[in-house]
Amino acid sequence: MRYITAKEAAERWGISLRYVQRLLMEQRIPGARKYQRSWLVPADVDKPEDLRKREKRGAPRTVYLPYRTPVPLMTQLYAVPGRMDLIAEKQQENNELAALCGCQLSYFRGEIETAQKKAGALYADASCLDTKLGALFVLSSCAVYSGAVRQWNKLEAALAGMRAASAQDRSYIAFCRAGIWSKLWDTTHFPDWLRSGCFDPLPGESYPLARFYYLKFLLLTKIRETPKSDFAAAAEPLISQTKLEGIVISEAYLRLLAAIAYHSDGNDKAALAHIERALALLLPDRLYMPLAECSRALDFLLLRALRTVDRTAYERVSSLNKRLMEGWTLLHNAVLQRNATNVWTVREREIVKLAVRGLTNKQIAERLRISVNTVKQRLGVAMEKVNVKKRKDLASFF
After folding, report:
1. CATH assignment of the domain containing 92
2. Count of domains for the chain
3. How confident is the model over 72-103, as pLDDT tens digits?
4. What span, in angstroms and rounded, lies between the C-alpha atoms of 322 and 344?
5. DSSP structure string for 344-362
6. Shortest CA distance to 318 belongs to which of 291, 339, 340, 344?
7. What is the dihedral of CA 26, 32, 35, 37, to 10 degrees?
8. b/e for 166-177, b at 16 or more Cβ within 10 A?
9. pTM of this prediction?
10. Cα(378)–Cα(368) distance, rounded to whole angstroms?
11. What is the arrangement of strands in the sheet containing 38-42, beginning at the earlier edge strand?
12. CA distance 91 to 79
C-alpha cells in the first residue's frame, strides 16, 4: 500500500493541514499510521465527511430494528436448523430487517457476489443505524473474501463517520468496529469493556454475537499467554448458554472457536466433538462460510470430518476456504502491514505452527503421528518457500 504525508493529503483534499491533523488524532482516516513523529495516510483513501456539516443537517434519526444487532440471524430469530428460508418471509412487515436477513443468508451460504450486491443496495437505502451496521458487516466480509483493499478502506471510513444518538449507540458502533476488524484477526479496536467480557453497554440482542467476539479476542490474545484450560473455562459456559437460548449460528461459531483452541493444544477428541455439533447446526441450511472461515485454523480436522458426512459440502467449503484465504492474506498484509503467507500446504502450515510454538521435531512427529524425517523434510520445504534460515523467523508469516 502506498502512503502520503498529512500535508500531501491536505493539498489533495483541499483542506487545511491543521484539519487533517485533527482527523488523524480522532482516528477518522482509516488505515492512517504514525511513523516516528509523522503521520502517513493511505494514498487511495477518500476524504472523510465533515462532521460540522452533518450537525447542521440536524440530529440523527433514532429508528432501530426489532433486533438490535448487526447480525440478526445470530439471535433467537433463527433457532431451528433447517428453517432458515422461512426467516425472511416472516419479516415482511419490516422491509429492512427482511432485506438484511436476506443478504446475510447469502453470505453465510457462500454466495458472495449476491451478498455484495444486496448489502450494497441495502446500505445505500437504509434508514436506521442497525441496518447500516448490518450491511457493513456483510460488505466487510465480502471485502475480506475478495482481498479488496480500497473497498475495506471505504467501509472503515463509513464506520468511523457514523454518529451516535446515545451512549449505547456509541458502544454499539465501537462493538461493530471491533467485530469487523477481528475478521482480519486484529484486536486493536476492541473496547476495554468487551476485552473484559462485559456486554452491559450493548443492546441485549447483541449478546450472542458479543460472546463470539469475546471468545475470539481470548483466542487471539490471552490464549497465547495462558493455558488452554483457561480458554475452555470461558468457552464452555458460553456455549451452553447459547445452546439453551437456541441461537444456532452463534452456537456453531462458539464451538468452532473452542475446537480451534482444543486442536491447538493437541486435544483433537474434544475439538472433533465441537466440530461435529457445529456441522449438525450449519449443514441443514447449507451455511458454509462459518466453516470456511475456521477451516485453516483447524488444519485437516474440519475437512476430514465434513467429508465423512457430506461430500458436496466438503467440496464447497474447500473451495470457499481457498478463495477466502487468498483474499484474507492479501487484505491482512496490505491493511496491517504484515507478511502472512498463503504458499504453504495444509501439512506444512500445521508443522510450522507447532515449530513456532517451540515443539521439537520429535514432539511434532508424535503430535501429528508422522515420522521425524517427514517433519524435517516438510519444515525444510516450508522454510525454503518463504526464504528463511531459522525456525524462529517463521512466526512473522502468520
Report:
1. 1.25.40.10
2. 3
3. 999 999 999 998 988 866 766 678 899 999 99
4. 12
5. S-HHHHHHHHHHHTT--HH
6. 291
7. -30
8. eeebebbbbbbb
9. 0.81
10. 13
11. 3-5, 38-42, 33-35
12. 15
CB crowding 285-320: b at 16 or more within 10 Å, else e:
bbbbbbbbbbbbbbbebbbebbeeeeeebbebbbeb
Q: How far is the C-alpha of 133 from the C-alpha of 203, rounded, in Å?
A: 14
Q: Position 302: which residue type? A: L
Domain boundary among 310, 336, 362: 336
Q: Which three cell numbers stand for residue 121?
A: 443496495
Amino acid at the residue 296: R
Residue 155 identity (one-letter amino acid): L
* CATH number of the domain that residue 389 is part of: 1.10.10.10
Place of cell 452533518: 54
Cell numbers given for 80: 431451528
Largest CA distance in the chain: 70
pLDDT reported for residue 59: 46
Q: How many helices (H) and strands (E) does the chain have?
A: 20, 3
Q: What is the pLDDT of residues 165-205, one digit of tens each?
A: 889 999 999 999 999 999 999 999 999 999 999 999 999 99
Same domain, 168 and 307: yes
- What contacts 265, CB < 8 A, 6 or more positions away? 228
